[in-house]
Amino acid sequence: MLILLPPSETKRDGGEGGSFDSKSLGYPSLNAQRRVLVRELRALARDPEAMMAALKLGRTQAAEVQRNRALTTSPTMAALDRYTGVLYDALDAPTLSAAARDFAGRHVVVHSALFGPVGALDLVPAYRFSHDSRLPGHPLKKHWGGAVSQALAVAEGLVLDLRSEAYVALGAAPAGSESLFLRVVTEAPGGQKRALNHFNKKSKGEFTRAILEHGRVFASAEELLDWAPTAGFRLHRGAPGELELVV
Asked: Residue 177 has what pLDDT?
């Protein structure tokens, strides 16, 4: 089983791990692409104005330039702890049990725009780089798409895709009946369903945490659907290839 999570633009500072080493990350077939983007992003950081334009940063976010300049020398921490924001606040990785963290290390992947998919416990530095960042000469869909899809194709069993559609565009999950995109929806009194945008992140974080604490490898979508109500979630099949989490 594999759970694919999106990253977050906001990240914790610091870390207790050593400096960044792409060879320590999961999916080593992506290391060449990782090194290219890290090298080019650090080079761009020498020109703060150009970097702020490429990353669509405001004046109050100038510190993000220094983060990128120090990419290869700053301390690292587990990806699941590095990311903050609505989804990761709801997941609350620092309070997971040891067993749940171990489960996450084996079954959760975070899809970074800079590093591609990384394991939940892979060590990454603080950085700023998103799916819509514009690194000259390296359009991200072309840079990542095929390579990420090929890397993810080795996944076995149920694949639960909680990424945003913008990150799906940087590398599709494996095709198949047991590869399912999770869409968070709200239901009106008349039964009409509407997809949520920003506010879906909290539900995704809570749902992921519940799976991690449960610690069970779901062999199929049916097993997941049977379990969800016992954990307090309304989970249904949606459009082909999708599940709907009703909130």
From this structure: 65
**Which domain does 188 fall in, by range?**
2-246
Q: Which residue has the tokens 């819509």?
A: 132
Interval 174-215: pLDDT, tens: 887 689 999 999 987 777 777 777 679 999 999 999 999 999
Which run of H or of E encompasses 125?
Answer: strand 123-125
Q: Would you say 5 and 160 are in contact if contact means Cβ atoms under 8 Å apart?
A: no
Q: Show Cβ contacts of residue 133 under 8 Å, excluding neighbours closer than 6 positions.
A: 54, 55, 56, 113, 140
CA dihedral sign of residues 246, 88, 10, 138: negative
Q: Report the percentage of the chain scoring pLDDT > 70.
A: 98
Q: How far is CA 25 from CA 81, 103, 147, 199, in A?
A: 15, 17, 15, 30
List the structure tokens of 194.
């509407």
Give the number of domains in the chain: 1
